[in-house]
Amino acid sequence: MAGCSTGEEAFSMAICLHEFLGDQSTARQIQIFASDISEIAIKKARAGIYTKAEVQTLSDEQLSLYFTKTSGNYQVVKTIRDLCVFAVQNFLKDPPFSKIDLVSCRNVLIYMDSFLQKKALSTFHYALRKNGFLLLGKSETTSVVSDLFASFIRTEKIYTRKSVPGRFLPVAAGRREDAFVKKDKKTAKPDTLQTDFRKTAEAILLAKYTPASVIVNDLMDVVHIHGAIAPFLEPPPGKPTFNLFKMAREGLGFELRNALHKAKTSPGAVIKTGIPVRIHGVQHLVTIEILLLTSSVEPHFMVLFTKKETETALALTGDLTTVITNESHLRIQQLENELAQTREDMRSIIEDQEVANEELQSTSEELESSSEEMQSLNEELETSKEELQSSNEELVILNQELLDKQEQLNGARLYSESIVTSIREPLVILDKALRIKTANLAFYKKFNFTELETEDKLFYELQNHQWDDPGLQGQLEKIIPQRVKLENFEITLPFPVLGERTMLLNARQVANEHAVEPLILLAIEDITERKMAEQKLKTFSEALEIKVKERTADLQLTNEKLQQFAHAASHDLQEPLRKIVTFSNRLQEKHEDEFSMEAKTYLSKIAGASVRMSKLIQDLLNYSQLLNHEKLFAPTDLGETLENVLSDFELLIEQKKAFITSGLLPTIEAIPLQMNQLFYNLISNALKFSREGTPPTLAISSHLLTPETISQYPTLNPSMTYCELIFKDNGIGFEQKYGQQVFVLFQRLNQPGQYQGTGIGLSLSKKIVEIHHGEIFVEATETQGAAFHIILPFRQFNPVRIP
Q: In the 3-class helix/strand/coil scheme, how is 619-647 assigned residue by residue?
């Protein structure tokens, strides 16, 4: 692409090739070289970024396939950019590319004159491979070099290269740049009619009275013929040629070669006279004169031919003897002249040879010196080659890393764009003047906008200045200069379609140190529904709080009544049971001999049932008191508590021959009565559920919990210190799957007749531990015993302490 400007034509051709080849485009190696003399244009072409107006002629499908949208502009995708190489080049001066399949130079030649057109087209001919194609503009042709190109599709200005030798013609350094001018399409009219006769006379003189001549280039090819040259030049048989030496008649070739050699080295005209040449059987003496044409860009020579007949030919009508004598004298004179000329030529050649020998000697010395320098330079080049090879390897690695980074960046960009597109909240990108650069789909959908209505528009001028709030505008204008953030800015605005909405705005500067201009990311969240829900929730909460207070007061009153009822019921129920037990015992003592064994059995069952009923009522009363206890905490020595409980079980321990051991127990902040109840229940269970024939053993220990262990229990406070108490016995145990069931109220794992109990003790113990903000769990194995773990804090969090 010669004269590619900002790259639109190169990318268009790449897109066309990609569309034409389809899936085969990856299998074909395509490379488009585009050049221009403007560095600014080449820089833009390399970036491949164009405005919306520049791509408006493309279809939506082409835009989506071959462009990505960046900051309101469109960038050519990497697969198309990789096909095009852009470089700064003046194709009239710089060496051209070679072996090109197609050269496109549209609407460039119309700004050049015929000479520069010939130069450019010759360069294109040299650059094209055999049968390559040339594409020109609608107003351009190859008429100035018709021997180099043939028309292929005339209407489309497509030409094909002819198979003739091509040459690259560099522009002469002295040629002025004013050759790049527009052609004057108007034909110049003759100045006046008075000069027509002079031009006519000059044309007649040139045609009839000037010698025959030819103009040759530096390759000795004839490029122009004037006059009748048939006596001097004639085409040789075989393949047509315009070479001067091959066309020269016999006797002229050597003289022409010698004269042209002198004309190249001497400044003036070179004249050779008296050259005998036989023309149509008649001997003639030919004079040749060679002039260097200095007004042409390339070296050209004019060769003029004149002839005259010999005196022998003129005196054919005289005496034969005289004619023969005269002819002999003329021949002798001619040979003498040729000999003198040959001697002169030999002397000139010898002088040239001596000068050439001196120059060769000097050149030989210089070459010898240069050889030594080249040897040294070669060694340096070897070292440089190794360094370059090492650098090349590093560059290959760096290039691969750059490619990987570029792929990662492209992936990250696509990933971020997909995230922004999928976000349901409206997002807007603003420049420092608060003009909208781009926005996501949610913004257009939420506020019923299109891209054309918003991009490059001031944010506060949207929808008839709908967003024109002085407070909001002032906050946004501070973000870039002061590097501040806009966080949770709440604003209520009326919208034509949506109605009055409450928006929550957050904005910050986009972090990019290499950005051309600073940008602002503005996020808009519609919190209208949330505000309405909060208001409804607040109203509901206030109403609920009033109802909770009323309900709490009712519950407190009911609780007081239940407390009174519990005490009264306990007293009223315990009194009949005590009488039943008392009178049953008296009957057994006084009338023991009068009752049968069956009656005694019934009386024992009545007494046992009454005792169990009394115990159940007492446990329920304790449970009720536990639920409504004032929770008065005090420092409690657990070792002292254990001693008090063990003294209560002294007879039972002695009876069952139990063995109880205890380590040092800590002092914690607790309710002393409840700690006593907790220890009582656990020791009672250990003595009660012992294996028959096996003395019960109970080991009581304690230790401080580590922070790692505390973190395993979600209900514990990590900022507090805890101790763990373990009550491990060798009783009947149970399956571990019942580990939670044993703490449920009235839940028993054994038959009531087998072991005494009410099913309240462990439930009461669990409640005591929960009141003290601790944990209780059990590890048990059937027939192997159980281990109860109690975790209690050393100090309570905001407790009601005993003064």
A: HHHHHHHHHCCCCEEEEEEHHHHHHHHHH
**What Cα–Cα distance (Å) separates residue 183 from each residue in 37, 110, 178, 771?**
21, 7, 12, 106
Is 546 in contact with 557 (CB distance < 8 Å)? no
Whether 169 and 162 have beta carbons less than 8 Å apart is answered as no
pLDDT tens digits along 554-573: 777 776 666 666 665 555 66
DSSP 69-80: EETTEEEE-HHH
Long-range contacts of 575-578 (CB under 8 A, 24+ apart): 577/610, 577/613, 577/614, 577/617, 578/614
pLDDT of 61 higher than 50: yes
pLDDT grade, residue 787 (50/70/90)? very high
Across 38-47, 271-280, 509-518, the highest mean pLDDT is recorded for 38-47
Share of the chain above pLDDT 90, in %: 13
pLDDT at 754 over 60: no
DSSP run (H or E) holding 259: helix 253-265
Please enumerate in sequence order all residues whose Cβ is within 8 A of that of 434, keeping only pairs 6 or more positions apart, or say none: 458, 459, 460, 473, 476, 477, 520
| Per-residue CA distances from 38 to 5, 113, 571, 729 (Å) | 7, 21, 112, 98
Most confident range, picked from 120-134, 248-262, 410-424, 571-585: 120-134
Strands (E), 497-617: 499-509, 519-526
Which residues are CB-neighbours of 171 under 8 A, at least 6 positions away? 92, 93, 116, 119, 297
3-state class (DSSP) for residue 548: helix
Orientation of helix 761-771 relative to helix 597-627, angle to 10°: 10
Looking at residue 179, the DSSP 8-state letter turns out to be G
Nearest CA to 124 among 155, 158, 154, 81? 158
Q: pLDDT of 631-640, one tens digit each?
A: 578 898 999 9
- C-alpha distances (whole Å) from 154 to each of 126, 571, 601 are 22, 125, 134
- CA dist 283 and 281 (Å) reads 7
Residue 758: pLDDT over 60: no
DSSP assigned state of 239: S
Per the structure block, which two tokens stand in for 102? 């197609």
Q: Based on the number of CB atoms within 10 Å of its own CB, is 720 exposed (0-12), middle (13-18) or buried (19 or more)?
A: middle
Say how far apart CA 345 and CA 342 lie, in whole Å: 5
Residue 111, pLDDT above cutoff 90: no
Across-strand partners of 32?
Answer: 84
The DSSP H or E segment spanning 441 is helix 441-447
Averaged pLDDT for residues 570-599: 71
- Give the CA distances from residue 630 to residues 449, 527, 627, 799, in Å, rounded to whole numbers and listed in that order: 66, 46, 9, 10
Question: Alpha-carbon distance 182 to 163, whole Å?
Answer: 31
Contacts 24+ apart (CB under 8 A), 406-415: 410/78
Helix, strand, coil tally for the chain in percent (to 5): 50, 20, 30
- What is the pLDDT, as a whole number, of residue 699? 93
Binned at pLDDT 50, 70 and 90, residue 188 comes out as very low
